[in-house]
């Protein structure tokens, strides 16, 4: 019988880190969400007591929170397909024989991802600002920081940062396709467009699904961009996105309600990601 000690030797470090930095915070957030703070009198000392599902009742009755959820869902429905479509297009171009200097362009496309999200948001915020932007011909005609356009201004920032990251994942999947497949397609008379549409895209679909799941999770966690844009636009409130609502609530401070917001948001992220994976896997089984 094979000894299990070598297996435990490799699995145990991951298990400990997973429990310490993933399971423990989730458990602590759930525990915090079940408590509430009460005071004896108006200015009396605060006491944390068990409140059951009272915080969750407040979450589901919180209109601004659910408006922020709807806002990021709209954001994701538009921004994620655009970003992944651009990432797929760039990956196909790099994998084709049409582009020279592939190493340079691969690095150039990836560089925005190396810039911290806060720095990228500040940079784009200055470019959008009518008084600071060098592109006054654009900002004087379209107020990109207005209530109607600020969401899509942030979508542009997110797309600029992450399109190169997703491109690399898809491009890596393209490089893994055996050359024999392309040779067979060439013998059958398939041109570059037909090869890309009928061979490359179907074979990299698992990578596209993976990047979509990452994007769904990232969309519901949108925080850095709206938090920075609050300094540039009055249209971005403290409850503009779900994560910003959590941050603002914990700053009051109301950690118990913020924990309940976090748990509900985590469950919503899990449900959306799991539903998308089930939908795509069902489509692949047909």
UniProtKB/TrEMBL annotation:
What subcellular compartments does it reside in? Cell membrane
Primary localization: membrane
PROSITE patterns, per the entry: ABC_TM1
Q: Which terms in the GO cellular component ontology are assigned? A: plasma membrane
Stretches assigned to the ABC transmembrane type-1 domain: 69-276
Alphabetized InterPro entries for the sequence:
MetI-like, MetI-like_sf, UgpAE/MalFG_permease
Which residue spans traverse the membrane?
A: 7-30, 72-95, 107-129, 149-171, 203-224, 257-277
Key words of the record: Cell membrane, Membrane, Sugar transport, Transmembrane, Transmembrane helix, Transport
Protein topology in the membrane:
Multi-pass membrane protein
Q: Name one GO biological process term.
A: transmembrane transport
Signal peptide coordinates: none
Name the family.
Belongs to the binding-protein-dependent transport system permease family.
Q: What's the protein called, per UniProt?
A: Multiple sugar transport system permease protein
| Natural source organism | Actinoplanes regularis
């Amino acid at each position: 019988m094979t000894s299990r000690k070598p297996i435990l030797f490799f699995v145990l470090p991951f298990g400990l880190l997973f429990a310490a930095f993933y399971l423990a915070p989730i458990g602590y957030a759930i525990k915090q969400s079940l408590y509430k703070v009460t005071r004896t009198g108006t200015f009396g000392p605060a006491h944390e007591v068990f409140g059951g599902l009272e915080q969750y009742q407040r979450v589901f009755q919180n209109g601004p929170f659910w408006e922020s959820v709807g806002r990021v869902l709209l954001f994701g429905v538009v921004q994620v397909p655009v970003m992944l479509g651009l990432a797929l297009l760039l990956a196909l171009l790099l994998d084709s024989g049409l582009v020279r200097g592939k190493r340079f362009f691969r690095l150039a496309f990836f560089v925005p991802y190396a810039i911290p999200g806060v720095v990228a948001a500040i940079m784009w915020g200055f470019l959008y600002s009518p008084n600071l932007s060098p592109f006054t011909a654009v900002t004087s005609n379209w107020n990109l920081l207005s209530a109607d356009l600020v969401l899509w201004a942030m979508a542009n920032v997110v797309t600029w940062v992450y399109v190169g990251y997703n491109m690399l994942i898809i491009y890596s999947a393209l490089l893994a396709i055996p050359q024999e497949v392309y040779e067979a397609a060439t013998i059958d008379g398939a041109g570059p467009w037909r090869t890309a549409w009928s061979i490359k895209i179907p074979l990299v679909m698992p990578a596209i699904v993976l990047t979509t799941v990452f994007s769904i999770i990232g969309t519901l966690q949108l925080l850095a961009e709206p938090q920075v844009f609050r300094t540039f636009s009055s249209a971005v409130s403290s409850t503009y996105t779900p994560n910003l609502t959590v941050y603002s609530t914990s700053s009051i401070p109301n950690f118990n309600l913020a924990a309940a917001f976090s748990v509900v948001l985590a469950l919503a992220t899990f449900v959306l990601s799991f539903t998308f994976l089930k939908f795509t896997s069902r489509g692949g089984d047909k």
